[in-house]
Amino acid sequence: MALSLTVNGQHYSLDVELDTPLLWVLRDELKLKGTKFGCGAGLCGACTVHVNGQPTRSCSTPVEYLDGAEITTIEGLSENGELHPLQKAWVAEGVPQCGYCQSGQIMTAAHLLANTPSPSRDEIVTAMSGNLCRCGTYSRIVAAVESVVD
Ligand code: FES
């Protein structure tokens, strides 16, 4: 299938199988390794990217539905060489432990703040509840998101 995608503002024309999950197009075809494979079943959130502005589990999203889509990955959050405020907060709060799930965590948090600039603690916890962290960094994740809230 000839697939047209815009990823982090760059246009790509790719020849891939219809049932290829977006995750593998990002990692294997485009070499964007920041998006991680966790459960592979849409359950953990490690593979979260934005598709047309919506947080999406790329491991369980076949590209056949994505022709013409705009994708943002963790690599696309920074602008002009400057980290996204959430990325700076992650560093300042020392959020990551093993770090594996954190790109998905940040992408989910970025969607929350893009749509709810001043979320309450409950809204943050609810929004982040679908992203699992085996190291249990949840309290630092909430603190990092709260630190960038207006
Ligand atoms: Fe996609 Fe777990 S790897 S949700």
UniProtKB/TrEMBL annotation:
InterPro entries registered for this protein in UniProt: 2Fe-2S-bd, 2Fe-2S-bd_dom_sf, 2Fe-2S_ferredoxin-like_sf, 2Fe-2S_ferredoxin-type, 2Fe2S_fd_BS, Beta-grasp_dom_sf, Diverse_Oxidoreductases
Keywords from the named record: 2Fe-2S, Iron, Iron-sulfur, Metal-binding, Oxidoreductase
2Fe-2S ferredoxin-type domain sequence ranges: 1-77
Gene3D superfamilies, per database record: 3.10.20.30, [2Fe-2S]-binding domain (1.10.150.120)
SUPFAM superfamilies, per database record: 2Fe-2S ferredoxin-like, CO dehydrogenase ISP C-domain like
CDD domains assigned to the protein according to its UniProt record, in alphabetical order: fer2
Record-annotated membrane-spanning stretches: none
UniProt entry tagged with the keyword Lipid metabolism: no
A single GO molecular function term of this UniProt record: isoquinoline 1-oxidoreductase activity
PANTHER family hit by this protein: BLR6218 PROTEIN (PTHR44379:SF2), OXIDOREDUCTASE WITH IRON-SULFUR SUBUNIT (PTHR44379)
Name used for this protein in its record: Isoquinoline 1-oxidoreductase subunit alpha
Organism whose genome encodes this protein: Marinobacter litoralis
Source organism phylogeny: Bacteria, Pseudomonadati, Pseudomonadota, Gammaproteobacteria, Pseudomonadales
